[in-house]
Specification:
Elements (H helix, E strand, L loop, with lengths): L1 E2 L2 E4 L2 E2 L7 E5 L6 H10 L3 E5 L5 H10 L2 E3 L12 E4 L8 H9 L3 E3 H8 L4 E6 L4 H14 L5 E3 L11 E2 L5 E5 L14 E4 L13 H14 L3 E5 L16 E4 L12 H16 L21 E6 L2 E6 L4 H14 L4 E6 L4 H15 L4 E4 L15 H5 L8 E2 L4 H9 L7 E6 L4 H13 L4 H10 L7 E7 L11 E7 L3 H14 L3 E4 L5 E3 L4 E7 L8 E4 L3 E5 L4 H10 L2 E2 L11 H7 L2 E2 L2 E2 L4 E7 L5 E5 L5 E2 L2 E2 H4 L2 E8 L2 E2 L2 H18 L5 E4 L9 H7 L6 E2 L2 E3 L6 E4 L5 H19 L8 E3 L3 H9 L2
Parallel strand pairs: 4-5, 4-7, 5-6, 7-8, 9-12, 9-13, 10-12, 13-14, 14-15, 17-21, 18-19, 18-21, 19-20, 23-26, 24-26, 25-42
Antiparallel strand pairs: 1-2, 2-3, 10-11, 16-17, 22-23, 27-28, 28-36, 29-37, 30-31, 32-33, 32-36, 34-35, 38-41, 39-40, 40-41
Helix pairs in contact: 1-2, 5-7, 8-9, 11-12, 12-13, 13-14, 15-18, 20-21
Length: 759
């Protein structure tokens, strides 16, 4: 984090001054990550932030030297000399808005790639289909033939090869994307044109407009333009210097389990590019051990007569080629296609063509459209795509365990079957769910573990049927059916996605105060913020503190005192962590959590990362609406005033002494009841002499009437029964209705108290 004129990043104090510091927003994207890694390897100082970072990408970024941050505050932007952002990032992103206000330069990924390839002999791989596979094939053969060259590939390999390489060589191989218009910034040495299909209707209104863009790139190409033999040159390319154009044969004899019609052409293009680089010894044998690219005909499962693969195809031409190849290479197998449309604009543009291509399969299932930030568009919705099928209507699936179970139930175990998941959105998560469901023999707990073990860091703890009693301050209750301790925001994202896929409720656990766990346990996922990253407490400028969700409030109070920040002393009396205190607007000594909150970073109920100021929340007594429906991950707290450390600590000691004198030391959950309007729960309990009242080993504290203590071996049922007794007596004698303040996990208070009363 940053503090005043000193720049602090997780303990790193970097005041190198003259060095460029580049921030990548959306660094986990398939185009962004390899570029960030290449730049870090080239000696640049690169930082990255991404709300949806995957563990496989995260590991590569860290290994390459990219400094990752879960989030960047607006005030920190002056630290950076340039912000690079993915085209998937919207223009109203807070970091982009802040960069514009502060005059920090920004550029898109494609513009950055064009800049780093200036002065190099760029071999630009372009086309509507096959760019990533062709680039990957070239990268693979560069290693096989031990050739020095730079490359950036826009996807992951199926094996351990990295999708980037930094070299002092003048050659640079990169795929150049036309989808966002940044193709206009490139001036290649060599352009490899794989094919050309109208796509990206959100940017190009017609095929002619798209073709004109490619024409201009070819005109800017310095040396050669490689085009497959037999590929037609339209009128848009008539003015091109024909001496530039080299037609290469697509008949290279590439045979592989990975070889579809497209991949034959991709292999030919890769060899043609290597020949331009004077690799005279290069031939198709260099691809003998090419493992392929992730999500390109990638095998997921082979179980008995069932084969499951996934493919990134998201254009009708790609789908037609894929299914034609699969049909031809798998004779006798029932072909089942599961398709997720990518973008409403593309679905509207091609729904008829999509339907025609998909009907090459024996059976088709459709998943909800992956919006990619687009608003829903009439004509591009799933219903309109479904209505475009002329034969047997496709079945629509939910993107969750219910949908995976429905797909599984449709399989016929008596015959050979091939299931292919097709699409460029988040269908890979659904495919992984389906595969884990089969491998676990339809055991949801085992499937959950199997799904997450490859999608979380090695430091993320994943457990089943984990006891919770010892993780609460009351020390009672049953087990969590699913339990996790994420190490970072990437782990947390994976956990939340798994909960959505499996239809699992989630609960975030800090120190376990103000919590009563049912004896039956919790049937959902408990997420505990115990890892070091969640417990960070760091000073910012202007008497402010950044605090992670798992940080103890006592530690926040101590840091504030050391820095002369007054107003946090009441936190000394709250035995909890920040996340729970934010969710409940916890209070003590007449002060409340939101008295010192400036802003909160949280994941909302829709799974979006948000950073809101205090004024954006609806908070009150023991509840903050937005946080109770989401997950607080951090907050910035602001001191009301400054004071000397000695005076602050005197007040802390006073509060601590008061708490020790007025609160029991035996295990408890803190205050059990909310204070009723015009009175105090503890005062009422004391007034009607209920201290010492017991049910089993649960007892009303003799020190403070609003505490129930565990005298050793108490059960949740005993605590609930005691709460019911207290409520009944107070209602009968005073008319006040006491409402529980403590959270009940695994049951609802209404049902639990109704059952206790026999209703």
């Amino acid at each position: 984090m940053f503090s005043g004129t000193n720049v602090w990043f997780n303990g790193i104090n970097d005041m190198s001054g003259g060095s460029d510091r580049i921030l990548f927003i959306g660094v986990g994207g398939m185009g962004m990550a390899p570029l960030a890694c290449w730049m870090a390897q080239s000696g640049q100082i690169v930082y990255g932030v991404d709300d949806h970072l995957r563990q496989s990408i995260r590991s590569q970024l860290i290994d390459a030297g990219v400094e990752l941050r879960d989030f960047v505050l607006a005030e920190q932007l002056s630290f950076f000399t340039l912000v690079v952002y993915s085209s998937a990032i919207q223009s109203d992103h807070p970091i982009l808005l802040a960069a514009g206000q502060q005059g920090v330069p920004t550029c898109r990924r494609g513009e950055m790639l064009a800049q780093v390839t200036q002065g190099k002999k760029l071999i630009a791989i372009v086309g509507s289909h096959g760019k990533t596979t062709t680039s990957g094939m070239i990268a693979h053969m560069l290693q096989v033939y031990d050739m020095a060259a730079n490359y950036i590939v826009g996807g992951l390999f199926n094996d351990s090869k990295l999708p980037y390489k930094y070299s002092e060589s003048e050659w640079f191989v990169a795929e150049v994307d036309e989808s966002d218009g940044t193709i206009d910034h490139f001036k290649p040495e060599v352009t490899v044109v794989l094919n050309l299909d109208w796509d990206h209707a959100d940017r190009y209104s017609s095929w002619d407009e798209l073709a004109a863009t490619f024409h201009q790139l070819i005109e800017r190409t310095q040396a050669k333009v490689l085009i497959p033999a037999g590929y037609g040159i339209s009128q848009h390319f008539n003015s091109i210097d024909t001496q530039k154009i080299v037609r290469y044969s697509t008949d290279v004899g590439f045979e592989s389990t990975y070889a579809s019609g497209f991949n034959q052409a991709n292999a030919a293009a890769a060899l043609a590019a290597l020949n331009v680089m004077q690799a005279a010894c290069a031939d198709v044998s260099g691809l003998d051990h090419f493992a392929g690219m992730a999500r390109r005909q990638s095998p997921l499962l082979q179980a008995g007569q069932l084969t499951v693969i996934e493919d990134y195809a998201h254009h009708p031409t790609e789908i037609h080629s894929l299914l034609s190849y699969l049909r031809h290479s798998n004779p006798g197998k029932r072909l089942i296609a599961v398709f997720q449309p990518h973008r409403y604009t593309r679905t509207k543009q091609f729904k008829t063509e999509f339907a025609a291509s998909l009907q090459l399969a024996d059976e088709v299932f459709l998943l909800p459209v992956y919006a990619a930030f687009e608003p829903e568009l009439a004509g591009g919705r799933l219903i309109e795509l479904s209505q475009s099928f002329s034969g047997v209507a496709p079945q629509c699936l939910e993107l969750n365990l219910t949908g995976a179970s429905q797909l599984f139930d449709s399989l016929d175990p008596t015959q050979p079957q091939l299931v292919v998941f097709i699409g460029a959105g988040n269908i890979d998560g659904f495919a992984a769910l389906f595969t884990a469901w089969i491998q676990s023999e339809q055991n949801s707990q085992v499937a959950w573990l199997k799904l997450l073990q490859s999608r979380t860091s090695s430091d993320c703890k994943l457990k089943l049927d984990e006891p919770l009693a010892n993780k609460t301050t009351l020390r009672v209750g049953g087990n969590a059916r699913y339990y996790s301790e994420p190490s970072n925001l990437t782990d947390l994202r994976a956990l939340l996605l798994s909960a959505k896929l499996f239809g699992i409720q989630t609960f975030c656990l800090g120190r376990g105060s103000n919590l009563l766990v049912s004896d039956q346990g919790y049937d959902g996922l408990v997420i505990r913020f115990s890892a070091a990253d969640w417990r960070r407490v760091e000073s910012l400028s202007e008497q402010r503190i950044w605090v992670g969700a798992g940080a103890r409030l006592k530690e926040v109070c101590a840091l504030a005192a050391r820095n002369g920040m007054a107003g946090f002393e009441f936190l000394e009396g709250i035995p909890g962590a920040l996340g729970g205190a934010l969710r409940m607007n916890a209070g003590a000594m007449g002060s409340w959590m939101f008295d010192v909150v400036e802003s909160v970073q949280f994941i909302d109920s829709d799974g979006r990362f948000q950073h809101w100021s205090k004024e954006d929340f609806h908070f009150g007594y023991r509840k903050v609406e937005e946080i109770s429906r989401g997950i607080a991950v951090a907050a910035i707290l602001r001191a009301a005033q400054t004071d000397c450390e000695t005076d602050i600590r005197q007040r802390m000691d006073s509060y601590s002494s008061s708490r020790k004198e007025s609160q029991p030391r035996a295990p408890s959950a803190g205050c059990i009841f909310k204070n009723p309007a015009g009175n105090f729960a503890g005062k009422l309990i004391d007034q009607y002499q209920l201290k010492g009242l017991r049910v089993g080993q649960a007892e009303v504290s003799g020190v403070h009437g609003n505490f129930i203590i565990n005298q050793g071996g108490a059960t949740s049922a005993e605590v609930i029964a005691l709460i019911q007794k207290i409520q009944n007596i107070i209602k009968l004698k005073s008319g006040y209705e006491l409402e529980p303040e403590v959270l009940l996990l695994g049951e609802s208070w209404d049902l639990a108290l109704r059952a206790e009363s026999g209703c």
